[in-house]
Write a structure and sequence with these properties.
The structure is a single chain. It is flat and about 110 Å long. A hairpin with a 2-residue loop joins strand 7 and strand 8. Strands 2-1-11-10-7-8 form a 6-stranded antiparallel β-sheet, with no helix packed on it. A 6-stranded antiparallel β-sheet has the order 14-13-22-21-18-19, with no helix packed on it. The chain has a 5-stranded mixed β-sheet with strand order 4-3-5-6-9, with no helix packed on it. The protein is built from 1 helix and 23 strands. The protein starts with a strand and ends with a helix. The chain is mostly beta strands and 254 residues long.
């Protein structure tokens, strides 16, 4: 996981372990300023459910996507974490443009939907169907601060669900799992965000096609290991050669 610090000159923080400790004390993995965090403020642990946030005792409230968390929360790539005045964006390791593409049979497309987690449509489920467009020119408008406009659309191409930005915003780029994109192939569980609007892709009918195993490579011909018979043959040949060499030396000398 990569952690970005929006509107800050701080470099990105790369985390490859299973436990991340965050606080102002020097023994944390990610150290924040004393004005931002308690000495031991929170921990993020990776388990079978994903990334689990735990707010430690004595720490001030933590916010995930502007919602307060008192004890625990399940995180996903693309979430915005706020500790004091420090904002952290959790980003996936893999770029959604370069990864493997899942496919969905037409009969299963009715189950594919965008579940809104924040923004105008929070709590609603928007069916994707044969395609859906959100933004200034779509059925589902998206409000952005300062009157900016941006939008995106989802559509099917060769059984894959493709995301394209329709109008862009410099201040509020379209993101998939925290990574800014203009085009991406989506997978189940992806989080799409545009400004304060957040959607998670629910797609139980989508699946990654298994990669066919490579054809078996024919085994090279096995040379029979020298056993007792092979060793005896070499001994006989060696003895014959030695006898010829001795005989030739005696004949030459006398």
């Amino acid at each position: 996981m990569r952690i970005e610090f929006p509107h800050s000159a701080r470099d990105d923080f790369l985390w490859t372990g299973t436990l991340l400790r965050v606080g102002s004390a020097a023994d944390n993995d990610l150290v924040l300023a004393t004005t931002q965090a308690a000495p031991q403020h929170l921990r993020i642990e990776q388990d079978r459910r994903g990334w689990v946030l735990q707010v430690l005792p004595g720490a001030l409230r933590v916010y995930v996507n502007a919602r307060p968390v008192r004890e625990r929360a399940l995180l996903r790539a693309g979430d915005m974490l706020s500790v004091g005045d420090c904002r952290m964006r959790l980003c996936a390791d893999a770029c959604p443009v370069d990864r493997s593409a899942p496919t969905c049979v037409p009969a299963a497309r009715d189950s594919v939907a965008l579940r809104a987690r924040a923004g105008t449509y929070s709590g609603r489920v928007l069916p994707v169907g044969n395609g859906i467009e959100l933004g200034a020119f779509g059925r589902w408008p998206l409000d952005l601060p300062q009157g900016e406009s941006a939008g995106f659309k989802l559509g099917w191409q060769a059984g894959q669900l493709v995301l394209d930005a329709t109008t862009g915003s410099v201040n509020y780029p379209l993101r998939v799992n925290g990574i800014a994109v203009n085009h991406a192939i989506l997978q189940p569980g992806d989080q799409l965000s545009l400004g304060s609007h957040r959607f998670v892709l629910d797609a139980p009918g989508m699946r990654l096609e298994p990669v066919p195993p490579p054809p078996p490579v024919p085994a090279p011909a096995v040379v029979e290991a020298a056993g007792p018979h092979g060793e005896l043959g070499w001994l006989i040949v060696t003895a014959v050669l030695l006898a010829l060499a001795i005989g030739w030396a005696l004949w030459w000398r006398f």
